[in-house]
Amino acid sequence: MRYLVSLVFLVSVLLFFGVNISPKQLAYAGLVPVLIPLFLLLNFALLIILLLLKRKLFVLPIAAILIGWRFIGVTVQWNNTSSEDGLSIMSYNAHVFNYEKYKARDPKVTPNIYNWIREQDTDIIGLQEFYQDFTTPARNAIKLIGRDGEYHYATQSVEERKGKRFFGLAIFSKFPIINEGKLFDNRKTNGAMFVDLKVHEDTIRVYNVHLESMSIPAEQLDNIDGIKENYQKTWRRLNRGIVNRASQVDFLAEHVKNSPYPAILMGDFNDVPYSYTYFTIRSILENAFETAGRGFGFSFNRVLFFLRIDNIFYDEALTPLRFNTLREVDYSDHYPIKAVFDLSPLIGPTDK
Questions:
Q1: Longest dimension (CA), the chain
Q2: In this structure, are residues 263 and 256 in contact, taking their beta carbons and an 8 Å threshold?
Q3: Which class for 300: exposed (0-12), middle (13-18), buried (19 or more C-beta within 10 A)?
Q4: Distance (Å, rounded) from C-alpha 112 to C-alpha 119?
Q5: Closest alpha carbon to 190 in 164, 208, 165
Q6: Are the C-beta atoms of 156 and 185 separated by less than 8 Å?
Q7: What SS3 string covers the chain?
Q8: Most buried residue, 6, 11, 64, 238, by most Cβ within 10 Å?
Q9: Terminal Cα-to-Cα distance of the chain (whole angstroms)
Q10: Where exactly are the structural domains of the chain?
């Protein structure tokens, strides 16, 4: 028993600190921390057993749990949420609005996903896997989501398509955009952009990101058998995605640190909370799920439903009132996530 408890403690500590190791520096380092939830549960089980046996070794699982306590907070939350109104932010990987599916049915019919986004009346919307088609009114996302000019908007194309169509990222805002920029893109699927918004008396910077994907074909994510049959390829693809994300998130974090304004960073991070990606951003910004969410916040709408890979991070100058994962919205392979922030710090004396 002594050797088992000591081994579990040692492995747990190594895992807990593993999120600080860049996958660029140590191959496959980014794959190991996904075992953190398992070892947290194992330490809780050992603690109960050792207490029942009245063994002094119980101090080791207690120590492990205390060291790894921050990972409990990124896994599940019980925050009290507010019903107050405020600055509403939504991030949504829209999965190209299921473009091909709806186009095959009837190119003249407007998909319900556009109507749903319009009905949310959200102040700031960040969309990943955004697809714009200027040639078809029923697929003109900028016009439909932007409510015919009610929203200001900025887009980043990461892949030009035939004619007047493009794929990429978009930010829609009820507040004026006074500046915008692109951080990076891989000219395929992923990228990062920002806009500076004039919100009453203040300016905030809003980032919308879609980091390197897990590089696993969608059909494999729809069934466990597909993952098992291709496990070697899946393993390599996962590691390649993790390494690429590490480079992206290092650049992103440096850009956020140099922002002249309070920042909100949202998007599809394609990585779990037990990762170098998550904690690199978490070291400079707060996470809305952790401070204002409830439950587990799972955001992936496929067979691996237990993944929380979409996030809204924010500057400590802002105060979140609530955070929700909208799991009833089933248009995409991701669920939308939404946060509401206290608007009063951004309202000057003349607005009160």
A1: 73
A2: yes
A3: buried
A4: 11
A5: 208
A6: yes
A7: CHHHHHHHHHHHHHHHHHCCCCCCCCCCCCCHHHHHHHHHHHHHHHHHHHHHCCCHHHHHHHHHHHHCHHHHHCCCEECCCCCCCCEEEEEEECHHHHHHHHHHHCCCCCCHHHHHHHHHCCCEEEEEEEEEECCCHHHCHHHHHCHHHCCEEEEEEEEEECCCEEEEEEEEECCCEEEEEEEEECCCCCEEEEEEEEECCEEEEEEEEECCCCCCCHHHHCCHHHHHHCHHHHHHHHHHHHHHHHHHHHHHHHHHHCCCCCEEEEEECCCCCCCHHHHHHHCCCEEHHHHHCEECCCCECCCCCCCCCEEEEECCCCCEEEEEECCCCCCCCECCEEEEECCHHHCCHHHC
A8: 64
A9: 65
A10: 2-73, 86-351
Cα 176 to Cα 291: distance, rounded to the nearest angstrom: 28
In this structure, what token pair is assigned to residue 321? 């009132």
pLDDT digit string, tens, across residues 222-278: 555 555 556 666 667 777 888 899 999 999 999 999 999 999 999 999 999 999 999
CA 219-222-226 angle, 5° bins: 65
Which parts of the chain have pLDDT scores under 70?
102-109, 162-163, 187, 214-235, 348-352
Reading the block at residue 114, the tokens are 């556009």
Joined together, the tokens standing for residue 133 give: 């088609």
190-233 per-position pLDDT tens digit: 999 999 999 998 999 999 999 998 655 555 555 555 555 566 66
Residues 6+ positions from 216 with CB-CB distance below 8 Å: 227, 234, 237, 238
